[in-house]
Each structure stands twice: as C-alpha cells, then as structure tokens.
Amino acid sequence: MALRNTARRWGAIAQVFHWVIVALIVVQVTLAEMADDLPNGMRKLTLLARHKSVGITILGLVILRLAWRWLNEHPPLPENLKRYEQALARFSHAALYVLLIAVPLSGWTMSSARGFPVSWFGFWQLPDLVPKSRPLYEALLTTHHTLAWTLLAVIALHVLGALKHHFWHKDDVLKRMLPFTRT
Ligand code: HEM
Ligand code: HEM
C-alpha cells in the first residue's frame, strides 16, 4: 500500500494516524473512568498521570496528522452525496479535529490551574499553561468533561456515518480508510 494518499484512498501513514488515535482514545476514556471510580490515593494519581501522558500523545499525533493531511492530496467525498450530507461530513471532520486539540489542551490547562504539573510518561515536564487558581480549575474541570463528552458524541455520529456509507450506500468510503482492502 502506498505511504501517501491518492485521489482514491488514504495512504498507510494517514491510516496509521487514524487508527492509532482511535485506539488511544479508547485507552484514554478507560483510564479516566477507572480513575473516576477510585478514592483519592496513589493508584488514582498513577492512572491520572497515565491519562495525562496519553492525552498529550494524542495532541502531538493530531498536530502531525493535520500537517501530513496538509502536505498530501486526499480522496474527495463521493459525488452522489446530497449537499447536506457533504456539509455534515465536512463539519463533523472539522469538529473532530478541533475537539481532538481542545480536549487535551483543556486537560493540560486544568492540571496547571490545579497546581499539578504535567509530565509525558516521566520523561519531560511540560510547562504550566496558567498559574494555580481554584476557580479557574473548577471552570476548566467542567470544560474538560463537557468537551470530552462532546467529542465522544461526535465520534458516535462519525462511526454511524462510516457504517452507513458501507452498508447503505455501499460505496468505498470505509474501505479506503482500512488496510488490506481494495477500492
Ligand atoms: C483526547 C484526550 C483526552 C480525552 C478524550 C479525555 C477524557 C477525559 C474524560 C472523559 C474525563 C472524565 C472522566 C469522568 O469523570 O467521567 C477526564 C478526566 C480528566 N482528564 Fe482528561 N481527557 C483527555 C486529555 C487529557 C489531558 C491531556 C490531560 C492533562 C494533561 C487530562 C487530564 C484529566 C484529569 C486530571 C481528569 C480528572 C479530572 C477530575 O475528575 O478530577 N485529560 N478526561
Ligand atoms: C476515536 C474515534 C475516531 C476519531 C477521533 C476519528 C476521526 C476521524 C477524522 C478526523 C477523520 C477525517 C479525515 C480527514 O478528512 O482528514 C476521519 C475519517 C474517517 N474515519 Fe474516523 N475517527 C474515529 C473512529 C472511526 C471508526 C470507528 C470508523 C469506522 C467504523 C471510522 C471511519 C472513518 C472513515 C471511513 C474515514 C474516511 C472518511 C473519508 O474518506 O471521507 N472512524 N476519522
């Protein structure tokens, strides 16, 4: 399979970005939910430290993914889609990119406001984005939760859309994002 995208399908690099980020979002939500169920203590802090490191990894990968998208052509949406369907697809993809950046940034800012520095798997300590402030932390906690659940809602719509293409329209949209398939 070609590394770069073509006018017919996503290349290997774009596919790796897509599916690695999907896997990391699953890990990310699992870690957050496991931490949420625990009382305050070392185990909770360890899970949240992992959640922060995985979240920063997602942020880095999304920036690289957008740069790669910009450097490449990409397959156009099928022409037989109605105008509102094309608009919905474009809007939901843009919303996914915005949220994939906004959710980790809100988490990072929230941790800074709480006074807990963020490190990437213990290798790098990231700078604090804002000074310590209790009211700001509380506002950002609500923001992080709301943005994260909005991201999950848009992902649900996106997955339904991909399945509709495959099973209803019977077009190549899902296959061109999957490895080992022919379009
Ligand atoms: C795409 C990336 C991310 C996703 C999808 C995500 C998702 C979530 C979700 C769903 C929760 C809430 C769990 C619950 O209470 O029900 C949460 C909590 C949390 N997130 Fe994230 N997060 C991301 C990135 C980050 C980053 C980068 C940081 C910090 C650097 C971070 C820090 C936190 C913290 C500290 C909590 C616990 C807040 C609390 O309840 O005290 N998150 N995250
Ligand atoms: C965490 C979950 C997911 C996220 C964050 C996500 C994100 C994205 C984004 C941002 C794009 C736009 C690509 C671009 O135009 O640059 C995309 C494309 C795509 N995604 Fe996902 N996705 C997720 C899960 C899934 C799943 C589970 C499926 C399959 C059921 C899927 C199928 C597709 C397909 C087929 C495309 C290509 C659409 C096209 O060629 O026009 N995605 N995804």
What would you say this structure looks like, in words?
There is one protein chain. By secondary structure, the chain is an all-alpha fold. The protein has one domain (12-177): Fumarate Reductase Cytochrome B subunit (Up-down Bundle). The chain is 67% helix and 2% strand. It is built from four helices and two strands; from the N terminus they run H-H-H-E-E-H. The protein has helices at 12-36, 42-71, 83-114, 134-169, and strands at 119-120, 124-125. The chain has a two-stranded antiparallel sheet. Strand 1 (119-120) and strand 2 (124-125) form a beta hairpin. It is elongated, with a radius of gyration of 19 Å. The mean pLDDT is 96. It binds protoporphyrin IX containing FE (HEM) (2 copies). One protoporphyrin IX containing FE (HEM) binds at residues 25, 28-29, 32-33, 36, 48, 51-52, 55-56, 58, 103-104, 107-108, 111, 118, 141, 144-145, 148, 151. One protoporphyrin IX containing FE binds next to helix 1, helix 3 and helix 4.
Secondary structure elements and pairings:
Blueprint lengths: L11 H25 L5 H30 L11 H32 L4 E2 L3 E2 L8 H36 L14
Antiparallel strand pairs: 1-2
Helix pairs in contact: 1-2, 2-3, 3-4
The structure holds protoporphyrin IX containing FE (2 copies).
One protoporphyrin IX containing FE binds next to helix 1, helix 2, helix 3 and helix 4.
